Amino acid sequence: MKLYKTLCAALLLVGASFANASVILTGSIDTGSEVDYVSFSMTSDSFLEINVLARGFNGSRLDSYIYLYRPDVSGALVGRNDDSRSGNWNADGSTSGLDSYLNIFLTAGNYTLAIGDFFLSDTDARDGFNESNASDTFVGAYQITFTGNGFVTDVPAPIGLSLLGLGLLGFSVSRSRRKA
After folding, report:
1. Is 149 exposed, middle or buried (0-12, 13-18, 19+ CB in 10 A)?
2. DSSP letters of the chain?
3. Average pLDDT over residues 27-50
4. pTM for the complete prediction?
5. Which is higher by pLDDT, 108 or 86?
6. pLDDT, tens digit, for every residue of 121-154?
7. How many whole angstroms separate alpha carbon 79 and alpha carbon 155?
């Protein structure tokens, strides 16, 4: 099963560079002070939709807050969002306006998304510690859907292709063992 998950992840990452691709990543904010990061690249100038499903996702009570930086947390603040009921905010299944959403035009380059619990300040997102929230009351799992042209995650294509190759090799070995 682990091999199957690796293969699926490799296919997802390799396919992420195609036009209008959607990539779904999951994670968890386990304490109110935690901040998670997702690094990615845009290969071309394009709109990117970043849609967070948190409140109610797998029983989560997370009130998400996101910050987008270029190229990383030491760089320029490009966008941020706390609560959103605008645009396509519920396309990922969100039922709560407490989930975060951005639809933003980005130029080609590297970016870092920071996600934490309300109230995550710009300073705390950059430092990696949410000092504004010492409570663990509104934490939990989240899912982030990235949709847009030119979006790729931080796994380079050669590595993704290697993972795909290893997954296929492992799958064929396991099938040959079953036949023997």
Report:
1. middle
2. -HHHHHHHHHHHHHHTTSTTEEEEEEEEE-STT-EEEEEEEESSSEEEEEEEE-TTGGG----EEEEEEESSTTSEEEEEESS--STTTTTTS---TTS-EEEEEE-SEEEEEEEEESS--HHHHHHT--TT----TT-EEEEEEEEETTEEESS-HHHHHHHHHHHHHHHHHHHHHHH-
3. 93
4. 0.73
5. 108
6. 999 999 999 887 767 778 899 999 999 988 776 5
7. 23
Q: Is 100 left (phi over 0), alpha (psi -120 to 50) or beta?
A: beta
Q: Where are the domains of the chain?
A: 1-17+157-180, 18-149
* 162 vs 10: CA distance, rounded Å: 8
pLDDT in tens, 45-71: 999 999 999 998 888 889 899 999 999
The domain made up of 18-149 has a fold known as Jelly Rolls (2.60.120)
Is residue 150 within 8 Å of 44, Cβ to Cβ? yes
Q: Side chain identity at 166, as an amino acid letter?
A: L
